[in-house]
Amino acid sequence: IHEHSGSYWPSIAIDPSDNPHVVWEGYDDEDGYYYWIWYATRAGGAWSDPYRLSTQSGYDQYDPKIAVGPDGSAHVVWYGYDAGGDYYQVYYAGNSGGAWSAPVRLSTNLQYDQYDPQIRVGPEGKAHVVWYGYDADYYYYRVYYASNPGGAWTDPVLVSHQPEWDSYYAQIALDLCGNPHVVWDDYDSTTYEDDIWYSADITQCIVRAA
Questions:
Q1: In terms of Cα–Cα distance, which of 23, 144, 39, 133 is closest to 88?
Q2: What DSSP designation does 176 have?
Q3: Rounded distance, CA 210 to CA 198, Å?
Q4: What pTM does this model have?
């Protein structure tokens, strides 16, 4: 699919017509060997040429994840350096009607690193994303959630609520109604161990910690 040197971390999703959609991070040999986010799909038996989703020239972008909606549209998230090359932020790009959107930054803690976004698309075509990153005080990792219920992304919602412990490695799944369910790794001040925590939004509003 991709012949440039140094391609890593692929993610794949299948659309309702059984066509595969693939994203990965990889070098661009023509731009100083920085990591970019790439996309390709196969329709009619032939793979498309790789398409570059990330636009931060001169700054590495990492670890994309892809989901496909019921209409066949592709939705991609990743994390990478911001325009100044100072901090990692979470970005999204979507393909609706055959054209890719410009990357949208989902994270709002602009002076603190954000990592490892995960994405799912519900039966109504809405995208849901979780990730973890430093909070505004820079002391601890938190789990954040954002969605796109109708053309615009919501501000990040704090999901984890352990005030003095780090929260990592969030994962998200959607039920048949499109409600998000989230799990993550967080320290438990009662057991003094890392435990697995769960939260769900059964109202399709915002995620509340359980």
A1: 133
A2: T
A3: 6
A4: 0.90
Length of the chain: 210
pLDDT at residue 210 in the model? 47
Cβ–Cβ under 8 Å, residues 61 and 78: yes
> DSSP 3-state assignment of 129?
strand
* pLDDT reported for residue 41: 93
Cα three-residue angle 151-154-160, rounded to 5 degrees: 150
Q: How far apart are CA 30 and CA 102, in angstroms?
A: 21
d(CA 45, CA 30): 28
Report the first-to-last Cα separation within the chain, whole angstroms.
43
Is residue 208 classed as helix, strand or coil in its secondary structure?
coil
* pLDDT in the model for residue 36: 92
CA distances from 114 to 67, 108, 117, 130, 131 (A): 20, 9, 8, 11, 7
Euclidean distance between CA atoms 53 and 46, whole angstroms:
20
**Nearest residue to 180 via CA among 152, 201, 158:** 201
- Where does the pLDDT of residue 21 fall: very low under 50, low under 70, confident under 90, or very high at 90 and above? very high
